[in-house]
Amino acid sequence: MTSSRVKPMARRRFAAGLALIAFLSASGSPVFAQDANMLQAPEGMQPARPVPQSLAEPSSGETAAGFAVGPQSIVPPGFGATTPSSASRTVEPSGPAQFFPAGVQPAEQSVRVLGSVPGRSGSGIEIGSLSGVDAATAGLLSGQQGFGADMWRGASRSDIDSYLSRLPVPMRSPVMSDLARRLLLTGARTPEGAGNASSLLATRLNLLIAAGHTQAALQLAEAAGKERSPGVASELARAALAQDNEKLACDALKDIPPGNDPAHDGMAAFSVKLSTYCQIAAGNREIASLTLDLAREEGLDDPLFYSLASEAAAGITLRAPEPNELGIMDAAFYRLAKRDLPENATAIAVPALLPSLLDDRSISAEQKVEAAERAAAYGLINGRQLAAFYRKPRFTNEQMAGLLTSDIPEASPLRRAMIYQSIGSAVAADERIQLFKLAFATAESAGLYYPTVEALYSELSAIEPNDALRPLAPAATRAFIAIGENTKAREWFALVAPGGQMLGRDERELSGLMRVADGSANDFDGKKLSAEIIADLKSGVKSTQFYAASEAMLLDALGFQLDPAVWDALLDARGALTGKVPPEALLNRLHAAGARGAVGETVLLALDAAGQAGPGSVHPRASAQAVASLRAVGLESEARRLALEALMARSSAGRG
């Protein structure tokens, strides 16, 4: 396309920038619950018993806006908290001085919902419409795949904007990544309250791109209709650039107004860079060079951009430092300039670029292993796809034979690829046992346990449990529990007997993991389990105490009734509990959202409480409240998976 975006006078300001996403923060002082401190259970279920009042007393140093100095209350707070109050909102500028001619301001669109998961074969896509609803309601998931068209019922617009501004994407937690993706793709009516209709859609697109789901972001933007706000258009352009779709990115430029301060306004800077990109791509190199000169005059400071754009436009090579992070626009200009990506591109690329790097022929098989591991950690590819990249590197016979003494760094992606390949070629039982345990241990330390279990599934599931493989039983049991293969997990668990201290501990914790994964709250030996938990809490071993405390709180959140003595023992062992404690106000709001049946708000707050590191890294009270509130809004399966992930992080059983 030919761009005419040139200003006639050098001193004229760049026009108003792309629309900023309206991220709001809650204001006001919340009122904390005073008379109830119990985990929330779904309506109609037997409520969990209150814990001792001493457990509910907040620390004097804890406030609604900050984190506690240390865990004081063991279980999540009860009812009575206020919801976040409304806050002022940043509004998109409406009449910018023009540097480049902008497109027509879009009108409101009705909701369009695609009723299938993007990319899933064999599932026809049906598009429906809800009249009188704005473009922000567009979605790709409906029915049981999403959270329902009324998922924002009872929530205020200011609250949802505030919660979305803190959504911790990308995440390495499988269950939390899945919840976030489904939340962002669900077609739903907008929450009540004043606000720009398209800004919610722009926010969802921005978060999908940050999480790496660029194809879903493109589909969502297209489902919203052809008339787009500047914010939506800019996110569409970013997603298109990430997928090297030059035409779609430059077509979006007509809906993006120019910015008036690229030196300080990120959206204005994006407008200038996208204009330059499209001018060069269309062959208008002289116009692009003029745009670069004007950008310098306006104070835009980005040496890498000028270096790449100048090389692409005029063949001029300017010195610039290598990026610390490879962004979407950076990668687009690297392609345009026909310059090789940085050597560490697979390590520094934003998640949105990882799928394209996996298809890039200029990236070596060794480098792609690193990109594949990162993509798998963020849920962008599955374990089977990760296995395919583990098979690509070629190792010498000497390297394979000397795996345990190899000069390849122990924590490197290549070493994990070598371990994977060795498992496929190993014949002796002892060697296979050692390699499986090594694979699981190294993967867990790298945050890749779940995709690694999927990658090794075919190899592990082909092995029949027998006494000769008993040393592998704890690791195999843990692996099958992690991916929901409970029948296979029980087959391997039968080999785990208390034949020694380590196996005895493995039996205790693995049985607890299986109970959380699929156990019945109405069919278990409460006396026996309570006694085991109390014994662990009184053991004096911090790791054992931490596991038992987490187990007790998560079981309580799942509706399991434990003896009152468990909570007394838990109080005595509270010093062994660690993990980030979310603000008291956040946990109160999470509890209240579940009580109201506010599905979308509950999911958002659960994601916020767990944080980017996931449910296994926060204080047990936070993960337990997330579990209880998810159950309260009918997300039983998701609550179980979250509880399992949290407890597995606290368990040392079967780690290899």
Outline the structure in words.
This protein has 656 residues and is mainly alpha-helical. It has 30 helices and two strands. The longest helix is centred in the C-terminal third of the chain and has 18 residues, at 501-518. It is globular. Residues 1-133 have low confidence and may be disordered.
Features:
656 residues; mainly alpha; 30 helices; globular
Describe the SSE topology.
Layout: H1 53-56, E1 111-114, E2 127-130, H2 157-165, H3 174-185, H4 197-211, H5 214-223, H6 230-242, H7 246-251, H8 266-281, H9 285-297, H10 303-314, H11 328-337, H12 345-348, H13 354-358, H14 365-377, H15 383-390, H16 397-401, H17 413-425, H18 429-445, H19 449-455, H20 457-461, H21 473-482, H22 486-493, H23 501-518, H24 526-537, H25 542-557, H26 565-572, H27 584-596, H28 599-610, H29 620-632, H30 636-650
Antiparallel strand pairs: 1-2
How are the strands of the biggest sheet laid out side by side? 1-2
Structural class label: mainly alpha
Count of beta strands: 2
How would you state the average pLDDT, rounded? Answer: 81
Helix content: 40-55%
Rg measurement, Å? 27 Å
Q: Report how far apart the termini are.
A: 57 Å
Largest sheet: 2 strands, antiparallel
The quaternary state of the protein chains shown equals single chain
The total of helices stands at: 30
Shape: globular
